[in-house]
């Protein structure tokens, strides 16, 4: 899912306003899913890692709720998370 969202955000950088809104909405859904996973009481990730991801999620939420979301920031965070997941 991260890869698809990254590609949509990249395309939105060159697209129109509607394409940007859709890409940010898709990114928001992705990060709401991340939030649900790390908030699950049965999650076995270490507490420190969950807290770090939760902080990252808050930064992403703030960025996405901005009047003009910084697509470069959203892309770079998603790429870093994807790299960590695939390493």
Helix content: over 70%
Can you count the beta strands? 0
Class by alpha and beta content: mainly alpha
Largest sheet: none
- What percentage of amino acids are in beta strands? under 5%
> Low-confidence runs (pLDDT<50, min 5 residues)?
none
SSE topology string: HHHH
| Ends distance | 16 Å
Domain count, please report it: 1
Evaluate the radius of gyration: 13 Å
Number of helices: 4
* Mean of pLDDT: 95
What is the molecular shape? elongated
Structure write-up:
The chain has one domain (2-86). Helices cover 80% and strands 0% of the residues. The chain contains four helices and no strands. The chain is elongated. Helix 1 packs antiparallel against helix 2 (17-39). It is mostly helical and 87 residues long.
Topology:
Elements: H1 2-14, H2 17-39, H3 47-64, H4 71-86
Helix pairs in contact: 1-2, 1-4, 2-3
Please sum up the structure shown.
The protein has helices at 2-14, 17-39, 47-64, 71-86. The protein is mainly α and 87 residues long. The longest helix is centred in the N-terminal third of the chain and has 23 residues, at 17-39.
List keywords for this structure.
87 residues, elongated, mainly alpha
């Amino acid at each position: 899912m991260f890869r698809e969202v990254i590609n949509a955000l990249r395309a939105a950088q060159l697209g129109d306003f509607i394409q940007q809104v859709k890409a940010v909405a898709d990114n928001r859904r992705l990060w709401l899913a991340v939030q649900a996973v790390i908030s699950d009481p049965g999650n076995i990730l270490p507490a420190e890692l969950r807290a770090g991801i939760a902080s990252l999620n808050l930064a992403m939420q703030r960025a996405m709720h901005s009047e003009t979301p910084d697509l470069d920031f959203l892309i770079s965070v998603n790429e870093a998370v994807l790299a960590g997941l695939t390493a």
